[in-house]
Amino acid sequence: MIIESTLRPENAVSRTTVNAGDHYIGVVKRGQTLRILDLEGNQAADTLFFSAADTAEHYSAMDTVREQGAVYLTAGSKLISSEGRTMLTLTADTCGRHDTLGGACASESNTVRYDLEKRHMHSCRDNWMQAIVNHPEYGLTKRDITHNINFFMNVPVTADGGLTFEDGISAPGKYVEMVAEMDVIVLVSNCPQLNNPCNGYDPTPIELLVWE
Amino acid sequence: MTHDAHYTTHLPGGHHWSLRLRRGTTLTLTAKQADSNVGLLCYNPENLLERLNLPDTLKAQHTFKLTQGHCLYSDMGRIFASITHDDLGWHDSVGGNLMPHHLLAKGWQPVSYQQAHNDWTRTGFDAFLVELAKYGLGRRDMAANLNLFSRVESDDAGKLSYVSDHCQPGNRVTLRFEMDTLVLLHTCPHPLDPAADYPRRGVDIALGIAEAPNEDDPCYRSRPENARGFANNRLYHLGL
């Protein structure tokens, strides 16, 4: 569902550009709005959320899919925690569909998906590891790294139970916006994937904007 | 392929169990009633941080459902188990767990142990937490679980629906373990089960010994990704 935002970038309280292969970790407070902007198109933003009050409560892909009765995320979707609570609500989306089933690329899963000798390429999971090691103040460890949202990724499910990876439906300037229903830690890996056509083999920057 | 059952038991509906299965053993589950559901999670007993990763499992095999020929992947690119036999053709990968708030929403009265003794209504969420705690694990460690015997479909628009009458009495699924695996099981209902009352549907469990898979093995051959997954297991057994 395409819903445009009325928020203006010049009124944002923070704007952060995240280059391809870089990570972002920070807090978005209850009531604040977060926009993830696909600056150059066909990028995937691999995103996890944790309750800032209790990091054992985290975004749950399966609880989200089941409670909204749909496998794709778009405007109106509620992002549900591992405890069944709404963490954020998607309020605007100019892309139309986001994946939460495909998971994140990892050095280890790249060996399975592409080639055993692809293990030394940078990956989202390594990116998250770098983020949690660089920021011990959030108290996150490998056991907290769970199943994520791939904003801007298109992973269609077929009625007979297949899963396919299609070209992205994002484009330069497309964005998704969400309002936080609780204080959340946002952990983003701006995907460095070079092995599949999801980003045209050319990972590009994203921008994160926050409004009060 | 038949396996001599070395141990058989029954897990009643609404209950939970965990067991460590060695590489080369099989776990066969047989539904006793229609619309049975078995929640399943896997961990590496040598490193409990390695656990079942359903997103990696689905995307490696380009599938939304799991059935015979598929493998269950850990987050470390290894195969915990292969599905070597399946009567159903579809096991659910996205439904997750029955949560405490579902009991009220469904009108499945929460009944306490004080009231109902062993017939109290337990949730898959709490069942897994009890089993996880036995290994020093907790809420942070609960990955997305499989729901064996259940079917949840998606239409072209992504809308989900639970399929009733998918599982029939006698339906059987066999997992062959490709590395030592800590298995958590519960027989709590699927969270999308529309039953009017909390359904208690148990399964028979049989443990056996598998023949070692070779390169003609259907799970090995079902996808080129799985051949690489088995290669990662061979490296693991070398000590890498």
From TrEMBL, chain A:
The lineage of its organism: Bacteria, Pseudomonadati, Pseudomonadota, Gammaproteobacteria, Oceanospirillales. InterPro entries: DUF1989, UAAP2. Pfam families: DUF1989. Residues 17-185 form the DUF1989 domain. This is Urea carboxylase-associated family protein.
UniProtKB/TrEMBL annotation, chain B:
Residues 10-182 form the DUF1989 domain. It holds the Pfam family DUF1989. InterPro entries: DUF1989, UAAP1. It comes from the Bacteria. This is Urea carboxylase-associated family protein.
